[in-house]
Amino acid sequence: MAKRLLLDGLGCLLAGTAGAPGRSAAAMARLLGGEPQATIFTGNTRGSVRDAAFVNGVTLYSVGLNDIHKPAGAHPGGCVIPVLLAVGEWRRTRGDVLLAAMAAGYEAIGRIGRAIMPGHRERGFHPTGTCGTFGAAAAAGRLLGFSAEEIACALGIAGSQAAGLYEFHHDGTLTMIFHAGRAAQNGVEAALLTQAGLTGPATVLEGTRGFFHATANAIDAEAAFRDLGQHYELDATSFRPYFGCSSTIAASGATAQIIKRAGLNRPDEIEEVMVLCHPVVAHDNADADPRTLLGARLSLPFNLALVLVHGDVLTGDLEEKELWDPRIRHFLPRVQLVADAAIPRFGAKVVLRFRGGRSEEAAILTPRGDATNPLSWEDVVEKFHRLTGPLLREIDRRKVAETVADIESTDAAALASVLRDAITSGGGRQ
C-alpha cells in the first residue's frame, strides 16, 4: 500500500509542476536561497531540504487527485511524500527505510486525526495543515534515525507549528494548498531543531494544554493508540481516481454512469440534476458560482457540470479555460443538492431529469478508490500514466513506476534522479 500511495503522490507532484501554485512556491524558495540539498521539482532546481519539502508539498497538493485519510479529514501524501523526497535525497536514505518513514508519517496523521475529529474541523481547523505537521515530523524523524525520545521531542515542537484554518473553503483561495507545503516544511524543521538540541513537550498531544484539548471540544485520546501495530493508517487511506474533492467524486462517478448507460450525446437534453448527499456535503460543497480553480474543485455543482459537458469524469486537473466555459456555467444553476443524513459522508445518489419527463438515477455509496474499495497497483499505474502523459515520455513514466515498485533495492537519491530525468526528457514544460 505504501508503494501504491507513493506512486500516486508522485503522479500528482509531477503533474503539479506544470501549474501556477508550484511555480509561485518555487519562486519564493529562489528568493530565500539556501544550500542546494534537495530537488525542487518545479523548475527542476535545488534548494534547502526544508524549502524543497515546502515547494514540493504545495506542488503535489495543488493537483486535485491526491490521497485522503477520511477519518482524519487530511491529505497525508501532500505532507509526507515531500518529506520523504527532500530528507531522503539529502541523506541518501535506503528505499526500505523510506517506506517505513512513510508508514510512520501516515500513522501519526491518521491516529491524531481520529482523536480529534470531527470537532477539530468543526472549530475551523484544516487537518491537512494541523495533523499533517505531526506526520511530517514523524516521517522526518524516522528518516534521520531518531530514537523514541527524539521522535517525541520532534512531535512536541511540531505541536507549536501545527496550523491551518478552513476559511479557504468559503472563497476557494490557495491557503488550502499552502497548508500541505507548510506542514511538510514544518515537520522537517521540527526534526532538524530536535537534532540541533531544541526540546518540545512529550505531552504535546494529550496534555491539559496540548494539541487535543486546544483544538477540539470533544476528544477521544485512546483512538490515537487503539490497535497500534495491528492496523495501519496506510490501509485506511483512500485514493481519488479522478478529479474533484473527496466529497464530490461519488456524485461525479454516478453522473458518468448515467450518461454512459443512457447513451447521452447532447447534454442540453438535461433539465435538472438532483443530488442526494450527506448534510456536510450539501453545506460545504454547494457553491454554484465558483470564481477560482480551487473553488471549482470544491464545488459539487461544478464537478457535475464538468462531467455533463465532457461526458465522463476528468482524469487530469482543471485549467482556467474550463472555469469560465459557458457550457459548464450553463449547468451550474440546474444542479440541486438535497441533504440526506441516510447518505454516507462520501457517497451520493444522482438523479438526472431529461426533457419530456424521463429520469435516470445512479448511486455510489462507496466510491472506487475508497479505503474499503482501494485501487490496485495496476490501477495506480494506469492513473499515473493518464495524469503525467501530457508532460512525460512513456519510457520515463514507466521508469518512475518501475523504480517505485522496486524501491527497496535503491534509495531516495536515485528516485529523485529518475524524477528529474523524466521532467528534463519531457521538455521541462513547467
What does this structure look like?
This protein folds into 2 domains: 2-241 and 371-425, Orthogonal Bundle (2-methylcitrate dehydratase PrpD); 249-364, 60s Ribosomal Protein L30, Chain: A. Strands 4-3-5-6 form a 4-stranded mixed sheet. The protein has helices spanning 2-16, 20-32, 49-61, 76-91, 95-116, 119-122, 127-143, 148-158, 175-196, 211-215, 249-262, 279-284, 293-298, 300-310, 320-323, 326-331, 377-388, 394-405, 412-425; strands spanning 38-40, 45-47, 270-277, 335-339, 348-354, 359-364. The radius of gyration is 21 Å and the shape is globular. The longest helix is centred in the first third of the chain and has 22 residues, at 95-116. Helix 2 (20-32) packs antiparallel against helix 3, helix 4 packs antiparallel against helix 5 and helix 4 (76-91) crosses helix 9 (175-196). Strand 1 and strand 2 form a beta hairpin. The protein is built from 19 helices and 6 strands. With 430 residues, the chain is an alpha+beta fold. The model has no long low-confidence stretch (mean pLDDT 94).
Write a compact overview of the structure shown:
This protein has helices at 2-16, 20-32, 49-61, 76-91, 95-116, 119-122, 127-143, 148-158, 175-196, 211-215, 249-262, 279-284, 293-298, 300-310, 320-323, 326-331, 377-388, 394-405, 412-425; strands at 38-40, 45-47, 270-277, 335-339, 348-354, 359-364. It has 430 residues and is an alpha+beta fold. Strands 4-3-5-6 form a 4-stranded mixed beta sheet. Strands 1-2 form a two-stranded antiparallel ribbon.
